[in-house]
């Protein structure tokens, strides 16, 4: 089975990215043919600074490798290293209804906030559909916020197939129930655009400060607390095993435990959880040759597959001189 997913290099990765998506990438590389890429073409819709985009893309690759992505098992590449992607995007664009894109959250949310949208933001889901369809992907591990985009991808694949004959594979999204929507420090979905993120590799002192600022209700130390509505508990669950989760839940309900203590527990659990990755990251960051080799080899493999599928698509709709 082909697994594929992408992640934008718009900033450093946060706990939401990890538990919603990256953790799945790492689990799935063991038994599936996995393709993972850094979505620099998507990032260009918000990041217009060549040096930063290039740097962020490399940092993103280092982060993924440090977190356990293994280039022997999975193919890791830069989205912009596979130019076939934009060919397929155009082809899909010609069969995409405006009304389909008008319904998509990323565009709708910005429009509602009065932020001017450009064609890049509006057609972003078509580029994402091309990302998925270009490699015959079966399964797309993502967080909840991307499910809609995978649905759009299925719609477009279906429409293409009905117009031009069976050509594209319909993918399915894969979302983990326990971490589909990781909360940020204000309790809303953790997201770079809400400025509520806790970054995975943030300096421990700064990270602690952020954890201590997670929003809670006004219950006093003695009051019983509800773990099910508390962002601190929701984050603790990600790092802890079941007995630890049950213990904290029980202490919450009993009263007598303050949010400060729970936050400190989250901070410590996170430091321990990502400790080995922090060490690996420091080593990887010092070896840029290996990193460039990994990305070049990844791009080669991805392009090989991408060219085959684009060829099939062009043949189906009458493009190119080869057919
Ligand atoms: P991006 O870069 O915003 O996020 C990367 C992945 O992290 C997940 N995620 C979360 N999961 C749970 N809780 C959260 N708070 C949270 N925040 C982020 C996202 O769901 C995503 O899986 N458009 C995509 C990138 C992309 C892509 C693709 C993904 C481009 N092409 C093709 C899959 C397949 C995006 O902006 O993700």
Automatic annotation (TrEMBL):
Keywords annotated in UniProt: Aminoacyl-tRNA synthetase, ATP-binding, Cytoplasm, Ligase, Nucleotide-binding, Protein biosynthesis
Binding site for L-tryptophan: 131
Organism placement in taxonomy: Bacteria, Pseudomonadati, Planctomycetota, Planctomycetia, Planctomycetales
Protein name per Swiss-Prot or TrEMBL: Tryptophan--tRNA ligase
Function: Catalyzes the attachment of tryptophan to tRNA(Trp).
Designated gene of the protein: trpS
PANTHER family in alphabetical order: TRYPTOPHAN--TRNA LIGASE, MITOCHONDRIAL
HAMAP family, sorted: Trp_tRNA_synth_B
Top-rank taxon: Bacteria
Ranges spanned by the short sequence motif 'KMSKS' region, renumbered to the chain: 189-193
SUBUNIT field: Homodimer.
GO CC annotation terms, alphabetical: cytosol
Record GO terms (molecular function): ATP binding; tryptophan-tRNA ligase activity
Subcellular compartments: Cytoplasm
Family listed: Belongs to the class-I aminoacyl-tRNA synthetase family.
Residues annotated to bind ATP: 8-10, 16-17, 143-145, 182, 189-193
This enzyme's EC code(s): 6.1.1.2
Record field: catalytic activity: tRNA(Trp) + L-tryptophan + ATP = L-tryptophyl-tRNA(Trp) + AMP + diphosphate + H(+)
GO annotation, biological process: tryptophanyl-tRNA aminoacylation
Motif 'HIGH' region: where in chain: 9-17
Pfam family membership, one: tRNA-synt_1b
InterPro entries in UniProt: aa-tRNA-synth_Ic, Rossmann-like_a/b/a_fold, Trp-tRNA-ligase, Trp-tRNA-ligase_bac-type, Trp-tRNA_synthetase
């Amino acid at each position: 089975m082909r697994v594929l997913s992408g992640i934008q290099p718009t900033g450093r990765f946060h706990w939401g990215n990890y538990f919603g998506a990256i953790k799945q990438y790492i689990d799935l590389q063991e038994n599936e043919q996995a393709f993972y890429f850094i979505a620099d073409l998507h990032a260009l819709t918000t990041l217009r600074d060549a040096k930063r985009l290039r740097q962020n893309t490399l940092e993103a690759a280092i982060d993924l490798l440090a977190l356990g992505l293994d280039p022997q098992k999975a193919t890791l590449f830069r989205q912009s290293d596979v130019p076939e992607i934009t060919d397929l995007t155009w082809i899909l664009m010609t069969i995409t209804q405006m009304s389909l894109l008008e319904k998509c959250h990323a565009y709708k949310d910005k429009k509602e906030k009065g932020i001017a949208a450009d064609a890049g933001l509006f057609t972003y889901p078509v580029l994402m559909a091309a990302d998925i369809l270009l490699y015959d992907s079966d399964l797309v591990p993502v967080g909840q916020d991307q499910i809609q985009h995978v649905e759009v991808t299925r719609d477009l694949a279906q429409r293409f197939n009905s117009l031009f004959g069976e050509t594209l594979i319909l993918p399915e999204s894969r979302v983990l129930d326990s971490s589909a929507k990781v909360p940020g420090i204000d309790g809303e979905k953790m997201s770079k655009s809400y400025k509520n993120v806790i970054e995975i590799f943030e300096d421990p002192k700064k990270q602690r400060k952020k954890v201590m600022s997670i929003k809670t209700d006004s219950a006093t130390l003695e009051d019983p607390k509800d773990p099910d509505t508390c962002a601190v508990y929701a984050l603790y669950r990600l790092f802890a095993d079941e007995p630890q989760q049950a213990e904290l839940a029980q202490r919450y309900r009993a009263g007598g435990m303050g949010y400060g203590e729970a936050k400190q527990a989250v901070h410590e659990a996170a430091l321990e959880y990502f400790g080995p990755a922090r060490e690996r990251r420091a080593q990887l960051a010092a070896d840029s040759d290996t990193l460039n080799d990994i990305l070049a080899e990844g791009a080669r493999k991805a392009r090989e597959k991408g060219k085959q599928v684009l060829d099939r698509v062009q043949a189906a709709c009458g493009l190119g001189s080869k057919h």
